[in-house]
Design goal:
mainly alpha, globular, about 400 residues
């Protein structure tokens, strides 16, 4: 009888958790990515402790529930290790020439196919979540292209080892692109689609504003006596943001500018900690503050914010590591937690600006359309009356 009561109580607790937490009730996109990848990898790693990246696979499994997107990035490292081993084994059996020839054709076909798919998606109306994932997919596809070009240069120099290495990297980037394109299709909900011209124009404006703000913050950091490592990091991220902007990938330009701004702010506000306890306290405060700000964007069903999710997961992970380190060694972990949390916060603010700009643009267009009807109606009435007068 007592067991029955205990089980009933536990059952009720679970029901309450499910009712108040959609995370438990419905697997989010990051959990889905991680779980799907780990499920496929489990076939390879099951009872095979000598498999490449086995330790990383275990880490990915351990992080799956609490840090799903970070878990996914770890599982991708496992996928790359397996791909590299399989192709290397194939080259040993069939020879480098045949393997290179076969892989070159496969990679080239995939690149052409994926480029067409991305181009079509970019030119069509899409949801904000779709834009987020297609932007990341385009980034991975460009990475694959660069590796493929490098492989051809190495091949012309008869450097077959380098050729094979570059082809493997190119093929792996294609695998990542395909995963993201699957998400893009799933996230392109008709009800949340935005006009492509509007999303491009507003993205360009918002990204430009954030690049300007990040530039100003970095200038302030340059004038201060803060550490140069943060300054270099912020400048590198800003330069990358500008490159994305010039390629019209305004989403990644926006995310890069927000990250650069956050790094500059981190450098300006960074203080020396009196102890590991002080560092831990500041890290906890920053993670808590960021968590509150993220609630705003995660309430939108048409936003996934993958880069925000990854940075915030890293902040929480480093904070947990800092808590588990009782000595002065906790300070670097706490420091990283603060930095990652600041980046997540600024990127979430940038996405909010982007969404607000799009919504404002919609309202403006709607008002212009409504008011634009009145002159047309007036002209029609004038023509009608004029014809009547002529008949009379």
């Amino acid at each position: 009888m007592m067991d029955y009561k205990i089980n009933s109580v536990l059952y009720l607790i679970i029901l309450v958790i499910l009712s108040i937490s959609p995370t438990f009730a419905e697997q989010n996109v990051f959990s889905e990515l991680s779980t799907n990848e780990l499920t496929e990898l489990s076939v390879y790693y099951q009872n095979n402790s000598n498999a490449p990246a086995f330790v990383i696979y275990n880490q990915s499994n351990e992080c799956n529930i609490e840090y799903p997107f970070y878990s996914y990035t770890l599982s991708l490292k496992c996928r790359r290790a397996i791909l590299q081993k399989n192709i290397s084994d194939l080259a040993n059996v069939r020879g480098a020439d045949m393997t290179i020839d076969s892989l070159t054709k496969t990679v080239q076909e995939d690149l052409n196919e994926l480029q067409d798919e991305i181009s079509i998606t970019k030119q069509s109306n899409k949801s904000l979540a779709c834009l987020e994932w297609i932007s990341l997919g385009e980034r991975d596809l460009n990475e694959s292209k660069n590796y493929f070009i490098a492989s051809q240069k190495s091949y012309r120099k008869d450097d077959f080892n380098a050729t094979l290495i570059y082809l493997i990297k190119s093929d792996f980037a294609i695998y990542k692109t395909k995963n993201l394109l699957k998400l893009t299709k799933n996230k392109n909900n008709i009800s949340s689609k935005v006009d492509n011209l509007r999303i491009t124009n507003e993205g360009e404006k918002v990204a430009s504003n954030w690049i300007h703000d990040a530039t100003d913050k970095i200038s302030l950091l340059m004038e201060s006596d803060k550490k140069e490592d943060i300054l270099t990091m912020a400048q590198d991220v800003l330069n990358e943001s500008k490159r994305y902007y010039s390629r019209e990938n305004y989403y990644l330009a926006l995310m890069g500018a927000a990250e650069a701004k956050a790094l500059a702010e981190f450098g300006l506000e960074r203080e020396k900690y009196t102890s590991s306890t002080d560092a831990l306290t500041q890290a906890e405060r920053q993670v808590k503050t960021t968590n509150k700000s993220l609630n705003v964007i995660f309430e939108y069903p048409d936003i996934d914010a993958p880069l925000v999710e990854l940075h915030f997961e890293m902040a929480k992970l480093r904070l947990e590591e800092a808590k588990n380190t009782k000595s002065i060694s906790a300070i670097p972990f706490a420091d990283t937690a603060i930095r990652e949390a600041l980046i997540a916060k600024e990127q979430s603010n940038a996405i909010s600006d982007f969404k607000i700009a799009i919504e404002s643009s919609k309202k403006t267009a709607s008002r212009q359309t409504t008011f634009g009807l009145f002159p047309l109606m007036g002209a029609a009435i004038a023509v009608y009356m004029s014809r009547r007068w002529q008949r009379d």
